[in-house]
Amino acid sequence: MRFRRYALLVAVLLTSLLLLTVQTRGGGPARAGDLVALALTPVQNLLTKAHRGALSVWNSYADWKRVRAENLALHAENERLRIEALQARETDQENRRLRRLATLRERLPLTTLGGEIIGREGGGWARSLTVNRGRADGVAQQMPVIVPDGLVGRVVQVRAGASVVQLLNDPTSTVGAVVQRTRTAGLVEGEPGGGLRFKFMARDGTGVAAGDLIVTSGLGTLFPKGIPVGRVTAIEDKGSALFHFAVLVPVVDFARVEEVLVLTGQASHDVASLFTPDG
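Predicted structure:
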């Protein structure tokens, strides 16, 4: 401890002697200031660089925070605009569907009742839709259900405020129909796989061809004559069998049906010209 005190005292004396010597030799205070500046300049430079670095990091962080906030605001605005565009598109599509339905309803020579689909059943063997019209609205079993493209099916169950509609592609569904081009008669049947087929008597093989439109025959009192049902995509040649089968694609996309017309009255004449099936 005593040695440290002596060493410190000697260091102070030597520093004082050095400063006096510099001053005595003519350097004066300026010379001493130069020495101090020489010693402090590196430290000052280091502190300046550290200050600038810290300021740059802070500015970068502030810029990142601002850009991030702007990006979040832009993302929220884009999401809002996207939702509004989807809503506008949905409204436009709904208006188009309702206009087509209203036009058909005005032109049909029979009474109809508009309804909205509120339920779907497409699994297993049953294929049906539930419409928000029932017994209270005058709906009865076996009433046909249509859209501007063509036939959807028939009412098979009626409740107080809703009805179940059996789709054409239900395996238990059959509809009397004809080929519009040749008037070849037959039956449209639903298939377990969800498709349709047209069963007709085998004659010369020219009564049905791919692309033919199949419409309701109007026989009986259930379905009016001329409602589009499906288009032929292929013929199943059974050789010399009594009946042949044609594979159909329905004119109605059952998965996209949202509004329907229930036919509450009957018409005896052909209504095919009143329909506008897609494709």
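Summary: Helices lie at 2-24, 28-107.
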